[in-house]
Amino acid sequence: MLSVSDILVNMDPISLDEMSAVKLMNRIDTKYVADDLTVAKLFSFIKDEYYVQEIDGKRIASYDSVYYDTVDNHMYIIHQDKKLKRDKLRVRNYVDTGNYFCEVKHKNNHGRTKKKRIEVGEDVFSDLKSEPAVRNFVENQLPDYDFDGFVKKLSTTFERITIVNKGKTERITIDFNVRFHNFENGNDECIAPLVIMELKRDGQCESFFQKTLFEMRIKPFSISKYCIGRALTDKTLKQNRFKKKIIKLNKLKKLREYAVTTVNAEL
Question: What is the Cα–Cα distance from 229 to 259, expressed in whole angstroms?
């Protein structure tokens, strides 16, 4: 079987500027998780229907993020306790473009997610409080929180492929080699060879990607990198909501290992 990288070479490219024109105003987001071999098979089915984002000749981009929370983990606990309205605060390094952004994600009680961000300097990646503009932005976006009470909790690093359908009504991100580092206890975890895919589509428009996933029996899988990373790297945290997800992730890993072992045994 060809790898995803092999398939990407033969996909039609789309530039970052062209991608920015794909504005999904009435957006519905759906996440999925599968192993890398399954994703390669998926790409072999959809490759002719989608463009792949290309930046300076590269079709795989690197991302680093640092997530902040309160000392008592309020943002994590709100999510764990299944509250519909919740927020996330992070500083993200878009490695390949050299840009840094402070980003706040709001989810409302209708399941809609809105992201607000401002571009910041490199120093903010290691110290949220190094630029006054960041304080103003965060206090405006998160008025119920004390800005000085935010502390670094988790870093995530991963590689991303971004594709858009040729009708430009949906955009999909495919994140792999997802790794976590817990700033409080120094623990590290990685969910590879599993891949997180997120479908962002315009309202209820038909999705070839979603249709193909259905045919492959890949079901939606709600997952937050921040929360699953915290749960995996700190067993002392309350994590009832995430236990079933962690079990499912481990099961997918074992199935992938079994598939590889079976193929090798047949060679």
Answer: 26
Q: Which two tokens stand for residue 197?
A: 């895919």
**Domains in the chain and their CATH numbers?**
4-266 (2.40.320.10)
Residue written as token pair 């790794």: 179
- Count how many Cα atoms sit within 13 Å of the Cα of residue 166 in the half-sphere of its side chain: 8
Residues ≥6 apart with Cβ < 8 Å to 257: none
Per-residue model confidence as pLDDT tens digits over 60-105 = 999 999 999 999 999 999 999 988 889 999 999 999 889 999 999 9
Burial class (CB in 10 A: 0-12, 13-18, 19+), 148: exposed
Contact 48, 210 (CB under 8 A): no
Pairing outcome for strands 50-53 and 12-14: parallel
Distances (CA, A) of 253 to 175, 194, 195, 247: 16, 7, 11, 10
pTM: 0.92
> Residue 122 — very low, low, confident or very high, per pLDDT cuts 50/70/90?
very high
